[in-house]
Amino acid sequence: MIRIVDFCRSHQIEINFVEKLSEYGLIALVIDKGEMYVMEEELLPLEQFTSWHYELEMNFPGIEVAQNLLSKIKTLQQEIQVLKNS
Fold first, then answer.
1. In this structure, what are the phi and psi dihedrals at residue 36, rounded to the nearest 5 degrees?
2. Which of 2, 21, 48, 77 could serve as a FRET partner for 35 with CA atoms 20 to 30 Å apart?
3. Cα 27–30–45 angle (5° rounding)?
4. What's the predicted TM-score (pTM) here?
5. At CA 23, angle to CA 70 and CA 44, rounded to 5?
6. What is the DSSP secondary-structure string of 3-64?
7. How close are the terminal C-alpha atoms of the chain, in Å?
């Protein structure tokens, strides 16, 4: 697990941003003894959302839509691969 405080410090972002991503259901936070953590498998999406928000100035609903579309594309690509293999 990665502490949110450490992630935010290293990426120079606000903790509030990560909390908001969690509220939108885009990442899952783990709270242990008053500290917020993110699981290692959530790190790549968290970095992607951080980039979208701070570099592309994408708002939270926009991040949510983009993530949903990417998820659907990935599912469709997997279905195509299965069909090709049958």
1. -95, 135
2. 48
3. 25
4. 0.87
5. 45
6. EHHHHHHHHT--HHHHHHHHHTTSS-EEEETTEEEE-GGGHHHHHHHHHHHHHS---HHHHH
7. 39
